Amino acid sequence: MTLSAVIRATRGNFRLDVSFDVADGETLAVLGPNGAGKSTILRCLLGLVPLDTGRIVLGDHVLEDTTNNLYVEPENRRVGAVFQDYLLFRHLSVIDNVAFGLRARGAKKESARLTARAHLERFEVEHLADRRPSQLSGGEAQRVALARALAVDPKVLLLDEPLAALDVTTRRTVRDELSLFLSAFGGPRLIVTHDPADARRLADRVLIVEHGSVVQHGSILDVMRDPATPYVAALFGDDA
Amino acid sequence: MSRRLRSDRPPIGILVLAGLAVVFFALPFAGLLWRAPWSDLVDVVREDAVRRALWLSIQTSVLATLVAIVIGVPLAWVLARVDFPFRNFVRALATLSMVLPPVVGGVALFFSFGRRGLFGQYLYDWFGIRLPFTTAGVVLAQSFVAMPFLVLTVESAFRQFDVRYEDAARSLGARRWYAFRHITIPSIRPAIIAGVVLAWARALGEFGATITFAGNLPGTTQTMPLATYIALESDPGAALILSIVLIVVSFGVLIGLRDRWLGNPHEVTRS
User: Fold this and answer.
1) Minimal Cα–Cα distance from A201 to chain B, Å?
2) How many Å separate Cα A52 from the centre of its chain?
3) Which residue of A54, B107, B235, B244 sits 20 to 30 Å from the alpha carbon of B163, by its own alpha carbon?
């Protein structure tokens, strides 16, 4: 299933105008400076920011199409996300965080917990099931956030600055883990980051966004070899 | 292990002032306890009038708090999350009865919901509903002055709540209403409890609006504060004992709620 998006949206004075495709099993990194509109792209894909014009299609399913007023609510999109700061629900234990989406879709408590436990095992954090989010390390919280997002069987996986909350010493380890976990998810994957190291380690292609528009798009090697703007050059300049 | 006294110990000036505040709160009760005719305690508490006043107070203050929860929490949400014209005007209106002297609130209620009041006459003519000098009137007066405490506390909590948690819930398949009930409300639970306690305490102690709008009918509208005030004229000893009963009930509830629900927020509890 391919995710293809044509997104035009406004937030106050800010205009976003981007389009891209991501294939099954492929990871696209959206790179850009702060305020470039990266997170707004994710919010549009999730259905949290309505499009002015454009179209979001996932395989055969149209999630949004402004030409015929089609809009699927966020809860019905099957677009999974690991949010910046992970946003684990603080009043719920780890296992109930992972079970939340299943419960919201009508699963019984016990069966939801059973499925949740399986997903915790998949990310090797089943021993944390009864903890509170406040008692987790950054790396643990990320695994739980991944387990929570994947427990409801999404067709696309979005990650918003998944490593920004970590300190420098653990970032590299967690990034390596994340790369492994990502390859286990078969659908299109999209990761938003301002760190070129994330893009290099995790992504197959990069989409570089500045001031709400795409300035460059291609494989990392191509982009590094022939940077389109001073920002891109500076981004990969250090060790190109 | 060496103790770093300088950084561990709170500043002495703050301790002294805080101690002064504690004394300030404690001394009035010392006087009351000192003058109370303890030998009459059992007789006074056994009196029918006293028991009826206490029971009425508990019933009406709980009902008034329920009214405040049912319509006050939605109002707090709207004030915090919906951008509409005259929002500041509505917020001021919703907190007005907290700032006004309660007697003014009672007078306002009387001219609106009294038998010949602006709305009261129709309530009576069309539906046969009479509010002044009834227990329902007591609940109305108490809700009117107590609800702002709940609205203000809960609105501030809704404002501080990070709405991205609702977004996360929706991406996981939760409808808006489900996310509101299962994520938003539990996240601000301490503020809701605090608001409920404040509103209930205000309702329990309500005097001015109640006596103005609902009068002082034993068994129907004579709540504990009213009974205490009346007793002060005829039997000061009984008034002291009524005060002590009210203090014990309030203090017990405040302590009980705090331990039960407002304890350490990081404490691990199983759901």
Assistant:
1) 26
2) 22
3) A54
Measured distance CA(A164)–CA(A32) in Å, rounded: 14
Check: CB of residue A88 under 8 Å from CB of residue A165: no
Q: Which of A130, A132, A148 minimises the CB distance to B172? A: A148
* CATH architecture of the domain formed by A12-47+92-237: 3-Layer(aba) Sandwich (3.40)
- Name every chain B residue with its beta carbon within 8 A of the beta carbon of A103: 182
Q: What is the pLDDT of residue B67?
A: 97
Closest to A104 (Cβ–Cβ): which among B167, B173, B189? B173
CA separation for the pair B171, A216 (Å, rounded)? 29
Please give the Cα distance from A92 to B264 (Å, whole number): 15
ipTM above 0.90, yes or no: yes
Polymer length of chain B: 271
Cβ distance B112 to B137 under 8 Å? Answer: no
CATH architecture of the domain formed by B37-261: Orthogonal Bundle (1.10)
Closest alpha carbon to A202 in A181, A221, A232, A228: A181
Q: Quick one: average pLDDT of A99-121?
A: 95
Q: Which residues of A touch B (CB under 8 A)?
A: 43, 46, 48, 73-77, 79-81, 83, 87, 89-93, 96, 100-101, 103-105, 130-132, 134-135, 148-149, 152
